Amino acid sequence: MGVRFRQSRRRGRRFPHVVGYQRQPPRHPSSKCLSTTTMESTVYLAICFGSILGLGLLAAGARYLPRKWKKTARRWFLVHLYYPSLTLCARPNIKRFDILLFAIVVGGNTCSVSIGANHRSEFSRRLGHAALVNMILLCLGGRMNALVNRVALRQERYLNLHRLFGFLMVVEAGIHSVLTGAAQTPRPHEKAQVAGIVVSGTAYPPSAHD
Amino acid sequence: MTDLGQASCAVCFIFLSSLWLACPWLFDLLSLLHTCLAIVIVVALWLHVPGGFVYKPPRLYILLSSTIFVSIKLLRLANTIYMSGTNSLATVLVDRERTGVELRIQLARPRDICAGQFIYLCLPGLSTSSSFRSHPFQVAWTYKDRGEQVLVILVQPRRGFTRKLLLADPHYKYRAIIEGPYGYRMRLDQFGTIILFSTNIGVSAQLLFIKETLKLYKHHRTKARRIALFWEIEAEGELSIFLFSCTGC
Predict the structure, then answer these.
(1) Through-space distance between the first and last CA atoms of chain B, rounded to whole angstroms
(2) B34–A142: do the CB atoms touch at under 8 Å?
(3) Chain B window 186-245: which residues touch A at a Cβ cutoff of 8 Å?
(4) End-to-end alpha carbon distance in chain A
């Protein structure tokens, strides 16, 4: 079997005009990342955001922890993260906790999009996926609800986070559509492209409004 | 992107941006549009992403988004139905005071409301646009009237919904849709001195803190020995809010 296989391969290379021979298209550099066996960087981003939300829910409902642990953790959180204002900032209502949340969200998005993306199409694809990850948290809504209330986030802080996720989604989706539009030939009758145009057209105003 | 696509994007953008500029007058309507556009985006994204397994990205992300979206809406609906009770909706009496508007909400089902919490209020009978959206209001104080819980909300009329409250009939009981209460319960019983700051009608957010602390003090369940309220007012008439609310203490 092995010999036969080798022969047929060799014949194929030498005689491409032989019937049955089909030249395989060159593999795209990004096709390696499309394989389903390895996890993408945007999946890590989604897991990171999900973990933070889950941790918040757990911390809010941690009734069965020893009282001493709870007291120590609460004190540390309030003294070092929640109450201290940022000294360099002119606005006193920006706390260290806000900056931490901002750094996690923006840093996570930047890292997941840029690290290891060595081709424009790969970068564009990752931007689209990161925008979708941000959309998951955007779908929690722009107003208080039972889930957000359970995490004990203040309304202003939650609205700021909602705006930040909306802004990131619009920016990422915008760059994604520009890069993809520049690389692909326009096919106005294709359903996916029309849907992409609809997303580009509708994505800006909601985030700007809220 | 095609010319058609660019044009449609531009038209959509300009049209909706112009609506956004007129935001103060169309806030309720734009809020509804916001939700509708979010649904459009989710549906369009589902058509846009390449096909494949539903349980693998990117389809998984859209599935999660839509699940969360629907779950949150259902949770809100459940909360509203629970607050409405079995027989009827909550009723609201709108009184115009010297400094603002006082809303007395008679709840169909009593709820435990703590200091610092707020509710979403929707008054469909007030105007057409007000039935589209509910507005958040801080609870100033609560009391019981003939065995039924009444929430009092103090409102400073500004624009939109709060301005329409000035035109409301003071003798008419409006039907109201209530959602909540939301907000984190802040415990002040561990502090010896409590310092509160407010300006004008903003004191309504602090009144429930004072009432709760005084109640706990009566039952020897708080460490608080001193409450300092720093309140900046523009008219002496605003003092009546505080005096009236403290009568129940």
Answers:
(1) 68
(2) yes
(3) none
(4) 66
For strands B193-199 and B226-232, give the pairing.
parallel
Prediction ipTM score: 0.79
Let me know: does A115 contact A41? Beta carbons within 8 Å.
Answer: yes
CB–CB of A131/B41 below 8 Å? no
3-state secondary structure of B242: helix
Task: Name the residue among B97, B132, B119 with its Cα closest to residue B243.
Answer: B97
Tell me the pLDDT tens digit for each residue of A170-207.
Answer: 888 888 888 887 876 666 666 666 666 666 666 554 44
Amino acid identity of residue A158, one-letter, is Y
CB B140 within 8 Å of CB B156? no
Q: How far apart are CA B148 and CA B185, in angstroms?
A: 23
What size, in residues, is chain B? 249
Contact A146 B4 (CB under 8 A): no
Nearest to A136 among B12, B61, B183 (CB): B61
Query: Consecutive sets of 10 residues in chain B, 249 residues long: mean pLDDT of each?
Result: 46 53 64 81 84 80 90 88 76 80 86 86 82 84 84 85 83 86 82 88 86 88 88 74 57
Q: Assess whether the previous peptide bond of B24 is cis (omega < 30° from 0).
A: no
Are B155 and B202 in contact by the 8 Å Cβ rule? The answer is no
Which residue type does B45 have?
L
Q: Which among B17, B37, B79 is the nearest to A202, CB-wise?
A: B37
Rg (CA), chain B: 23
B48·A142 Cβ contact <8 A: no
